[in-house]
Amino acid sequence: MTIILSFIQQSIAQGIAILFGASGEILTEKSGNLNLGIPGIMFMGGISGLMGAFFYEKSVTDAGGTPNGFVGLIVSFLCAFLAAMLGGLIYSFLTISLRANQNVVGLALTTFGTGFGNFFGGSISKLAGGVGQISVKITSEAFRTPIPGLRKILPFGFLPYFAIIVAIVLTYFLTRTRKGLNLRAVGESAATADAAGINVTRYKYLSTVLGAGIAGLGGLYFVMDYSKGTWTNNVFGDRGWLAIALVILSLWNADKAIWGSILFGSLYILYIYIPGLSRAMQEVFRMLPYLVTIIVLVLTSRRNKPENQAPANLGISYFREDR
């Protein structure tokens, strides 16, 4: 029973970062933009949040004071969210205003974000006197404060609950509000939406920038909550790509991504709970989330239900003067 409970807890813990990334990408893709820079944006969010906490605590300590965990939490949260939004703004400017190829820009942003995280992680590590890692303790404790009375069953901080709330609110926004329906219209046919008086450029910019901000919180969660305020280079592994895969698995529905993230989290760590596996077999097990995504993609393509398909204009840039 203890092993089962541990497996469930770890599955949820692993899946939350993926859920943040998938929720942000769903919001982005509903506008027709395909942002493959999500892995890099998660790196930017993670390292920026940790840098904010680190410099806040250092400045207060150097001044002879005692850092406040809650204040550090707010600083860290805002740094992560704003840095990730900046990544989304760069992507939007290049693809919407300058007409650059979405796939190329997204992949370049992932490379940039990964390098951004590793570079500043190493630089601050030296500043902190460490070797290859940074550790922020006071602020990370604020991130990991669990709900009273549920400590043993749900030993999580506030970000996992926030991720679920974001996914639910996002689902409501996209399916029950006029602006959400307008956004979906932009993703299905930007020219038709434009003809109907919808500001396509504004919707694409806002959804991509806000989607990036949400995805960046996945990096913040992994560093400040899951990793207890510690940064090591390449800390996220392939979780950013799993977030993009989860968008497909959830059929572009943020509420379904909640359960999909737990499934991905369980598949990602399943090999740990199976004794005697060789290194090669461990890597095979870590491929399971991608295999499940491919199977779902094939099945939904064969059924051809419109509500289970990607936005019709996904990855296709729209320029009004080209109409």
Can you tell me about this structure?
The longest helix has 29 residues, at 69-97. The chain is an all-alpha fold and 323 residues long. Helices cover 71% and strands 2% of the residues. It has a two-stranded antiparallel sheet. 44% of the residues are buried. α3 (69-97) packs antiparallel against α9 (200-226). The N and C termini lie far apart (62 Å).
Task: Describe the structure concisely for a colleague.
By secondary structure, this protein is mainly alpha-helical. It has helices at 2-29, 38-62, 69-97, 102-127, 138-143, 158-176, 178-188, 190-195, 200-226, 239-249, 254-269, 279-286, 288-303, and strands spanning 133-135, 230-232.
**Largest sheet data:** 2 strands, antiparallel
- Major beta sheet, strand line-up: 1-2
- Shape field: globular
Distance N to C terminus: 62 Å
Number of strands: 2
Radius of gyration: 20 Å
* Percentage of residues in helical conformation: over 70%
Can you write the helix and strand succession as a string?
HHHHEHHHHHEHHHH
Q: Ranges with pLDDT <50 over ≥5 residues?
A: none
Quickly give the structural class: mainly alpha
Percentage of residues in DSSP E strands: under 5%
**Number of alpha- plus pi-helical segments:** 13
On the 0 to 100 scale, the average pLDDT is 89
Give the topology, please.
Elements: H1 2-29, H2 38-62, H3 69-97, H4 102-127, E1 133-135, H5 138-143, H6 158-176, H7 178-188, H8 190-195, H9 200-226, E2 230-232, H10 239-249, H11 254-269, H12 279-286, H13 288-303
Antiparallel strand pairs: 1-2
Helix pairs in contact: 1-6, 1-9, 1-10, 1-11, 2-3, 2-4, 2-9, 2-10, 3-4, 3-9, 6-7, 6-11, 10-11, 10-13
